[in-house]
Design a protein that fits this description.
- By secondary structure, the chain is an alpha+beta fold.
- The protein has one domain (6-58).
- It has helices at 9-15, 21-30, 46-58, and strands at 6-8, 36-38, 41-45.
- It has a 3-stranded antiparallel β-sheet with strand order 1-3-2.
- Strand 2 (36-38) and strand 3 form a beta hairpin.
- The longest helix has 13 residues, at 46-58.
- The N and C termini lie far apart (33 Å).
Length: 59
């Protein structure tokens, strides 16, 4: 099965333990998570989520 490279914000929040919408979008705003816009859809690279989690583990 092919692993996705991008996920929508709902799936991204789920991957981060069910994080709230406000907190998730704040991370996007702060640049702690990267975003990609395709049309009107906001997508988050899986690699960005993995990098964010790694930064939490290192702290």
């Amino acid at each position: 099965m092919v692993q996705p490279l991008l996920v929508d914000t709902s799936k991204g929040r789920e991957m981060l333990g069910g994080m709230g919408k406000t907190q998730f979008f704040e991370l996007l705003k702060q640049g702690k998570l990267k975003r990609v816009k395709i049309g009107t859809k906001t997508l988050v690279p899986i690699s960005s989520i993995q990098e964010y989690v790694a930064s939490l583990e290192a702290a």
